[in-house]
Specification:
178 residues, single chain, His-Me finger endonuclease fold, two-stranded antiparallel sheet, 6 strands, alpha+beta, four-stranded antiparallel sheet, elongated
């Protein structure tokens, strides 16, 4: 199929030069966002796949995905990383908006990522975070946690060699224990 394109002032004319008669001319209006009106020949030149063909195509796509899962993952990871690097302002604006709309989720996320960066190793971080929220007193000196003062700030105590969680302590007890 060959396309011949002419651009008059306000309309786009496309002639499809095929074996079909001249009634296969398409006319598109730029004012109507190039919505095409086609003849019966062009509308039915490509038939829709049957249900059986669609099922085979889906199975074929699944097999391909399973075979190339790692490559697809790496490709998408690199593509997203590149987009994030090129659009830092958009990413930061989205994160800021998310933090304002979801303060509980963002606080939890910040707390857990901070623990992981400091080397905490645990099986269930969500359960540990719930215990963190529920703890009200230091497990050594029994002082009431109050994040307004340095001495009563709640800390997550863990072994710095193995990364294993021990308990929640106040700041002074945590410093003495290290």
């Amino acid at each position: 199929m060959t396309l011949i394109i002419c651009l008059p002032r306000r309309h786009l004319w496309i002639w499809c030069v095929t074996r079909h008669p001249p009634s296969t001319i398409l006319w598109c209006s730029l004012r109507k966002k190039l919505k095409c009106i086609a003849t019966k020949h062009l509308n039915h030149s490509r038939r829709m796949p049957t249900e059986e063909q669609r099922k085979r195509n889906r199975e074929k796509q699944k097999r391909y995905y399973e075979k190339h899962k790692k490559e697809i993952y790496e490709r998408n990871k690199n593509r997203v990383a590149k987009w994030n690097a090129e659009n830092k302002e958009k990413v930061n604006a989205y994160k800021t908006k998310y933090r304002l709309n979801n303060p509980d989720k963002s606080k939890k996320s910040d707390t857990l990522s901070g623990w992981k960066q400091r080397g905490l190793i645990h099986d269930d971080y969500d359960d540990l975070y719930e215990k963190y929220l529920a703890s009200t007193h230091c497990e050594i000196c029994d002082v009431l946690f109050n994040n307004d003062e340095w001495r009563t700030t709640k800390c997550m105590d863990h072994c710095h060699k193995t990364g294993v969680f021990r308990n929640f302590l106040c700041q002074p007890c945590n410093l003495k224990r290290e």
